[in-house]
């Protein structure tokens, strides 16, 4: 059985892509965040501008155009169909690092009230800036890291009240 992904581009175009489709595409990695793609005799130069691994949202530049891309796997789609995705995200009380990296910016302060999807901090990993956003509305209880700190995967970054 092939794994399928739902890809939503700029919130107005949606497509299903299988692992088989991906494996048939000619993709060459040219740096940590850039790729050259050859598909149906067309050449594309792509760059991952930002990535949010928690919510599987990316900003991708293809040739001269920039796109916002949301990717859902089969489990994400099933959870969403069951109506659990909204309730599950509201239970998060701590933000942990999704990967090892360097904190290059913190955009909130202790005691600050944030809304869902507000920018919290920027984590640089593999020469890519990853914006960590708030999974829910709430008040920042503590910020455990400082700008310039190197963090390991799973390190506590921010706690909510």
Automatic annotation (TrEMBL):
Keywords on record: Biotin
SUPFAM superfamilies (alphabetical): Single hybrid motif
Keyword Amino-acid biosynthesis tagged: no
Record PROSITE patterns: BIOTIN, BIOTINYL_LIPOYL
Record-linked InterPro entries: Biotin_BS, Biotin_Carboxyl_Carrier/Decarb, Biotin_lipoyl, Single_hybrid_motif
Pfam families xref list: Biotin_lipoyl
Cited CDD domains: biotinyl_domain
Domain of life of the source: Bacteria
Entry protein name: Biotin-requiring enzyme
Organism encoding this protein: Aquimarina amphilecti
């Amino acid at each position: 059985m092939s794994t399928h992904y739902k890809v939503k581009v700029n919130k107005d175009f949606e497509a299903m892509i299988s692992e088989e489709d991906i494996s048939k595409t000619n993709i060459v990695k040219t740096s940590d965040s850039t790729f050259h793609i050859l598909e149906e005799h067309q050449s594309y130069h792509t760059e991952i501008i930002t990535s949010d691994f928690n919510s599987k949202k990316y900003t991708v530049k293809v040739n001269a155009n920039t796109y916002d891309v949301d990717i859902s796997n089969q489990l994400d789609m099933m959870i969403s169909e069951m109506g659990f995705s909204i309730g599950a995200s509201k239970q998060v009380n701590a933000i942990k690092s999704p990967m090892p990296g360097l904190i290059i910016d913190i955009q909130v302060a202790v005691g600050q009230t944030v809304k869902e999807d507000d920018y919290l901090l920027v984590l640089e990993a593999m020469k890519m800036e990853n914006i960590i956003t708030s999974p829910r509305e709430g008040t920042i209880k503590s910020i455990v890291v400082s700008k310039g700190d190197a963090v390991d995967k799973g390190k506590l970054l921010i706690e909510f009240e």
